[in-house]
Amino acid sequence: MELVNWKGILESLLFAAGDEGLNLKQITAVMEIEEHEALEVIQTLKEDYDEGSRGISLTEMAGTFQLVTKKEHAPYLKKLVESPGMSTLSQAALETLAIVAYRQPITRAEVEEVRGVKTERPLQTLVSKGLIKEVGRAEGTGRAILYGTTREFLDYFGLKNIEELPPLPEKIDDEAMEEDADLFFEKFQETLDPHEEKPTD
Amino acid sequence: MEYNVKVDAFEGPLDLLLHLINRLEIDIYDIPMAQITEQYLYYVHAMKELQLDTASEYLVMAATLLAIKSKMLLPKHEDDLLEEELEYSEEDPRDELVERLIEYRKYKSAAEELKAREQERGQVFTKPPSDLTEITESIPTEKMDLNVSIYDMLGAFHKLLRRKKLQKPMSTKITRQEIPIEKRMEEVLQELRAFKGKKRFYELFPYPEKEHIVVTFLAILELMKRNEIEVDQENNFEDIIIAAKGGVESSGTR
């Protein structure tokens, strides 16, 4: 590893690959080196970026290695764009997506069972955004569509792979969940009993 | 019974129940049915007052709560039962509801986690792959039938939208001009034929305007449907390649 500038080669490859990224197999095939060697080069390049005053970092997403801009420069990048702020997913879409991600392959009926409400629209939204897709059909009558997550899903949430999803929480901190709803409840109270004092928590 | 206003207050009856349980500081494993039912009905009523979208699911849940409440009131005839049966009869009418609430709560919190990641991911940017066609010999002509599905196309399309957002200069004036799909289809075909019959998917979207992008995308889909173009995926960069079917117009030498 003295004469050949492996790091430089990898850097140009990743630059060219852009957001498609390169997986380990592609890197070893193109550079004609062993897997462990490739991992070493990846690691040193990653450290170079992280330690230096550089605007780019090397990250692993959706099964590939990619060059991305550093988080702390986001405010400047957002100035480049006309409409800053990504459009984000609705609460309904996020809940639906969480259920699909952890329970895939899953039918609409099964998702609705967990959520306790109709879920047709959020599912459609997620399909049209390319975050979930039909992965097969359920056995039995009706042959209901089975949904699963896509590679785009991994990319959208910056996950290396589906295993990187954190385990489902068993113990829940209710405090955090409450905050957003409290305002709404207060509005309710005011609507219903305008003359009563608000309950104190 | 018309409620067209959709306020994202609650994500359904389970969500509402969870809020009530937290608010009233109730132990989820020992829900006082009378209290929670009363509160629940009170809020469903309030939602109607406020003309919110009270989906039928809320009313179904109300009925469920009332049913559980009345079951709890039934006396238990323990002396009539044998010991063995006693064990089985210990079922609490609330069990099923509690299980559903806990299950739902898990995914609700997983959704929070996803939301945080979405935020995080929105802070970093990437660039589209460089166009290396300059140095490629030419795109291999043997067909690799990789079955590009509508989902692949949608994926490519969304990636494109993300990219185009960043490329947009700050001071673009968008001239609203309706482009008929038919016209764009014609343009796409011409473009392809002028270009050795093939182009990368992303190259067919020259203008970073949403309208134009959407029309182009629809044009491509329509051309696929009419079998006028072929859509393929190279394996290397997973780029989608669009090829005109009727071959190449002899546009002389380059």
Automatic annotation (TrEMBL), chain A:
Keyword Amino-acid biosynthesis on entry: no
Arranged from A to Z, the UniProt key words for this protein are: Cell cycle, Cell division, Chromosome partition, Cytoplasm
Please state where this protein is localized: Cytoplasm
Superkingdom as given in the UniProt entry: Bacteria
Pfam families for the chain? SMC_ScpB
Enumerate the Gene Ontology biological process terms: cell division; chromosome separation; DNA replication
N-terminal signal peptide: none
Q: Name one GO cellular component term.
A: cytoplasm
Known role: Participates in chromosomal partition during cell division. May act via the formation of a condensin-like complex containing Smc and ScpA that pull DNA away from mid-cell into both cell halves.
User: What family classification does the UniProt entry report for this protein?
Assistant: Belongs to the ScpB family.
NCBIfam families membership: SMC-Scp complex subunit ScpB
Q: What name is this protein filed under?
A: Segregation and condensation protein B
Q: Which organism is it from?
A: Falsibacillus albus
> What's the name of its gene?
scpB
